[in-house]
Write a structure and sequence with these properties.
The structure holds 2 protein chains of 2 kinds. Chain A is mostly beta strands. Chain A contains no helices and 11 strands. By secondary structure, chain B is an all-beta fold. Classes of the chains: A mainly beta, B mainly beta. The interface between A and B is medium-sized, with 25 and 26 residues.
Chain lengths: 124, 109
């Protein structure tokens, strides 16, 4: 079945840019949207944004000014950049599949496959 | 922006008991936009229910979802040892995107 794997630096300096990549294996990146979600230590889940294979995006309004999500269909990967990071950006970052972009489940909004998550620390 | 409230914050039950978790939205939510997730310590969330009442692939039938409008419920009919975890509800809004409730922790009594 489809598997997702996050990769990227685990430590980022304050004020710099956080960059993560999610690799999709055992499935195509088309027909779904692909999301990033984060979870600060001991806290709940915060959706960051999603991208479709065509490149169309939707971002959390509270993060929109600092976030860019991109897709590379040739590599079956999508990526996240968060600029000007602070301690508040420290979290476990998850990539996930969803929402469905076509087929019978288009119009449903859920995240059905998740990566294991990667921890990002913000510190100098 | 639609805000989700989950209650109770913590539910202490014994294996074999029934668990009823509530998710209330500040405005009406389309059922297609309501989902439930289970998260265990150190693990990613797992989709349990989508469309308010449809079980995701591989989810046991002891998990069921119901509700509409502003009030939704996740029921676990008989708690198994592996069901003790944190449960989140999620909705989607056209202006806010995905938002999650604060979670309900189901722990062993």
């Amino acid at each position: 079945q489809v598997q997702l794997q996050e990769s990227g630096p685990g430590l980022v300096n304050p004020s710099e840019t956080l960059s993560l990549t999610c690799t999709v294996s055992n499935g195509s990146i088309s027909t779904y949207y692909w999301s990033w979600i984060r979870q600060p230590p001991g806290k709940g889940l915060e959706w960051i944004g999603y991208i479709y294979y065509s490149g169309s995006t939707n971002y959390n309004p509270s993060l929109k000014s600092r976030v860019t999500i991109s897709v590379d269909t040739s590599k079956n990967q999508f990526s996240l950049k968060v600029t000007s990071v602070t301690a508040a950006d420290a979290a476990v970052y998850y990539c996930a599949r969803g929402p469905p972009g076509s087929g019978s489940h288009r119009g449903y909004y859920y995240l059905d496959v998740w990566g294991k998550g990667t921890t990002v620390t913000v510190s100098s | 922006e639609i805000v989700l409230t989950q209650s109770p914050g913590t539910l202490s039950l014994s294996p074999g008991e029934r668990a009823t978790l509530s998710c209330r939205a500040s405005q009406s939510v389309s059922s297609n936009y309501l989902a439930w997730y289970q998260q265990k310590p150190g693990q990613a969330p797992r989709l349990l229910i989508y469309g308010a009442s449809s079980r995701a692939t591989g989810i046991p039938d002891r998990f069921s979802g119901s509700g509409s409008g502003t009030d939704f419920t996740l029921t676990i009919s008989r708690l198994e040892p592996e069901d003790f975890a944190v449960y989140y509800c999620q909705q989607y809004g056209s202006s806010s995107g995905f938002t999650f409730g604060p979670g309900t922790k189901v722990d062993i009594k």
